[in-house]
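Possible regression after last week's pipeline update?

I re-ran a chain I had predicted before the update to compare outputs. Posting the input and the new output here so someone can diff against the archived version. Not blocking, just want to make sure nothing changed silently.
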Amino acid sequence: MQTFTADSSEELAVVSRSDFVESRHIGSAALVDPSGVVVAAIGAPAEPVFARSCLKPLQAIACMQLGVPLSGEAAVLASASHRAEAEHVSVVKSMLSSVNLGEDDLQCPSCAPADADNRAAMRMSGRAESRLFFNCSGKHAAFLMAQKIAGGRPEDYLRPDSIVQKQVRQTVEDFCGEAVSAAGIDGCGAPVYALSLPGLARGISGAASGRTESAHQLMSAVLGSPWAIEGRGKENSVVIERLGILAKKGAEGVCVMATPDGWAAAVKVLDGSSRPASLVALRLLASAGAVNMEAALGVLSDVAPRVTGGADEHGRALDAGEVLPGAGLLAAESKLAASRPDAPTGTAADREDLPV
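New output (post-update):
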């Protein structure tokens, strides 16, 4: 089995440098409304993609369904791809200690903190690497908690036939409304599943809109502590904090975003680049009226990867271009805007409410 091909992809974004388009990102995307209906499709969204860390909110919900009392920052860390800031590590330690487990029970890889401040502090302390510092350690802590609370052997928590992983798969399929089409091993060692982009969007819609009590508790926690899902000033955390929506990126160019009322976008950049993913998801939501376009563009201007060239007199990098919507995204935006009751006339290329 494989994901979609370049032939079935569409242009999601372009990279412009000095008014010259030097790179193009292709892929697929889907936008669903609160009822789960696909209202925008780019490329081949029905083809399966490994959802990677975009599954984390559903994995956290599965743990809660097994009786794990996740709330507040611990619930967010169960959904996080964190940068191992000192506060992230402290929460993960507390999660483990709550069930009399510790760092040695984690089965994710060991690494140095991605957060520069904590990385320097840990090196000074003589502890350069740890499983606690891996970006998925919060998810693994939640898995361990669920496995132990449910009566399973903690050391089996990553086995596909373990209590917690069976619950995860069932929760994913229930929320997404489809059977997983393939299973594999994620970068952290946990099972990962392939889904269609509309299915993934529906699953994240259910999480963001609080379809179940566990989902409601999780979304409340994410909105209350957005820093915990990635890190202070980092892309997903900024989107959540400033727009009040659920945002989660995964490896290999996968991204999901969903509003509390159930609009949701899922994106897969074919070459695995994460550079245009948030731009695509946010602009689809904004074009449908689910997110304010001006606010979305304001967030994008702060979190989008910079295209730089040269430096000022202080040695600071100067902007030399930007990441812009591609032809496939612009076409989808035009269709979405035209379908709205208050739709103005014109194309995405010449309308003020769809800046390019």
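Follow-up from reviewer: compared with the archived run. The CA atoms of residues 243 and 295 lie 7 Å apart. Marking as no regression found.
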